[in-house]
Design goal:
This protein is α+β, with helices and mostly antiparallel strands and 80 residues long. The chain has helices at 9-14, 52-63, 68-77; strands at 30-33, 43-46. A two-stranded antiparallel ribbon has the order 1-2. The radius of gyration is 16 Å and the shape is extended. The mean pLDDT is 78.
Length: 80
């Protein structure tokens, strides 16, 4: 297995994680530049904003009535 840009198999496997049913996980925010080019020319880098709280608050209206709204609200309460 090889994943370009992540330093090979070992570095890639260290980034793997499981998401269980009903679990909410925020991975990161990133900025994507040069998207018109191929993936090899695309520049993806982490950014501070939006943070997980901002993203989740933006999703809340779309989650209403889906069963995820309660999970999202509970998750938000646990954030600082």
């Amino acid at each position: 297995m090889y994943h370009f840009g992540y330093g090979g198999t070992e570095a890639f496997e260290q980034r793997l994680f499981d998401v269980k049913p009903g679990e909410i996980i925020f991975i990161d925010s990133c900025k994507v530049d040069n998207i018109e080019k191929s993936m090899l020319g695309t520049d993806i880098r982490p950014v501070e904003q939006p943070d997980r709280k901002t993203v989740l608050k933006g999703l809340l209206p779309h989650l209403k009535g889906t069963g995820w709204d309660k999970r999202a609200e509970d998750y938000l309460k646990g954030l600082k």
